[in-house]
């Protein structure tokens, strides 16, 4: 018979997990970050499916499985969700590209190929994020367009540090090759072929290295 406390009320017992130890509570910061990630992922999926303009706050919270209040506790609105998702994807791509170039044991050509392979691998693995960052960002809002332009410039600077210095080539050669890569990948995503982005590696490697090899 269960124990009772004075007054005849049954004693309450704290539920325990198997093994006898109580379940540890998840940190609030972890829970908050998890909800933010779900909201950002939901926006990326929806913009890939129906475009930024057609995506509503009600769509985002429904897809993310959170309350509307939760979204507004973490973001000011749809545009801020988009920018946060863009920044997260950009940072991940930049990290992968830098690591891909650094891991290449060889000259600058292999470093370029390693960085390109990492970039195309991300596009293939994350087609919804790739579409959001490389297509929707260009027309969603002026702020997202500026974010895209700044990200492109960051990749130009990274490429410039890897490519050899050649005074016989135009000063804008790094912008030209990076912009060309972005345009080709943009077209691949628009055709719904992001999953096959890695097939472009030989072509894009030749495109980026050819001007320097020709002038050598």
Quick structural overview:
This protein is mostly helical. The protein has nine helices and no strands.
Explain the overall architecture.
The protein is mostly helical and 216 residues long. It has a domain at 82-215: Tetracycline Repressor, domain 2 (Orthogonal Bundle). Helices cover 67% and strands 0% of the residues. The chain is built from 9 helices and no strands. It has helices at 28-50, 57-64, 68-74, 78-103, 108-125, 127-134, 142-162, 173-190, 201-215. The radius of gyration is 24 Å and the shape is elongated.
Class based on secondary structure composition and strand pairing: mainly alpha
- Quaternary state of this entry equals single chain
Number of strands: 0
Strand content: under 5%
Alpha-carbon Rg, integer: 24 Å
Q: What integer is the average pLDDT? A: 87
Largest sheet: none
Feature tags:
mainly alpha; 67% helix
Which secondary structure elements does this structure contain, and how are they paired or packed?
Blueprint (H helix, E strand, L loop, with lengths): L27 H23 L6 H8 L3 H7 L3 H26 L4 H18 L1 H8 L7 H21 L10 H18 L10 H15 L1
